[in-house]
Specification:
The chain has 179 residues and is of the alpha/beta class. Helices cover 20% and strands 25% of the residues. The protein has four helices and eight strands; from the N terminus they run H-E-H-E-E-E-E-H-E-E-E-H.
């Protein structure tokens, strides 16, 4: 029992994933991709930055785009999709709608299903952003997470959102609340 309290005392005070950073060939093309295909929202970034980039946010996570100065830092631009490669993954509540969107936007993708247990099968869509970084869309909520080490706790920040989101109030949004 004492091991648990000591381990908990030394756990890092982390709360959630804040952002993923991506180096881009073209910040403009990447902003268009992440906003149109994945629904991210362009947000302001500190004016003190002296390099080209953009910040996007949605679904509780940010994507920071940085203009590449060295093309060798980018992945090769082949169309090969390998689920075992590095990727970021987004939870999806309607896989059919997302697949239809990829088709309509003529984005090459790989579709697969992992697991065959009833209620635990996971559907996955893999595709690449304009710079060759792989993205996964999945319905991973079908699989329950079970900690492999029983003495570790999974932390979920229910009481606040980081970073705080400053939503501008407009007459239309206030009128919608009143109706």
């Amino acid at each position: 029992m004492e091991k648990n309290s000591k381990d908990e005392e030394h756990e890092p005070p982390l709360m959630a994933l804040n952002h993923v950073s991506r180096v881009c060939r073209s910040v403009k093309d990447s902003v268009e991709f992440y906003t149109r295909v994945l629904g991210f929202v362009l947000t302001e970034r500190p004016q003190s930055f002296d390099f080209d980039g953009a910040w996007l946010f949605n679904y509780g996570v940010g994507i920071h785009l940085v203009q590449s100065k060295d093309a060798h830092k980018l992945p090769c631009s082949d169309d090969h999709l390998d689920p075992m490669d590095n990727h970021i993954s987004f939870q999806c509540e309607d896989m059919e709608a997302m697949e239809q969107k990829l088709k309509e936007m003529h984005i090459e993708y790989m579709k697969r299903t992992v697991g065959d247990e009833e209620g635990a099968a996971i559907d996955q869509l893999f595709f690449k952003d304009p710079d060759g970084f792989m993205i996964e869309i999945c319905n991973c909520e079908n699989l329950k997470l079970v900690p492999a080490e029983s003495f570790r706790r999974i932390k979920l920040p229910f009481d606040r959102h980081v970073p705080p989101v400053d939503m501008p109030h407009t007459e239309n949004s206030d009128a919608a609340k009143d109706s």
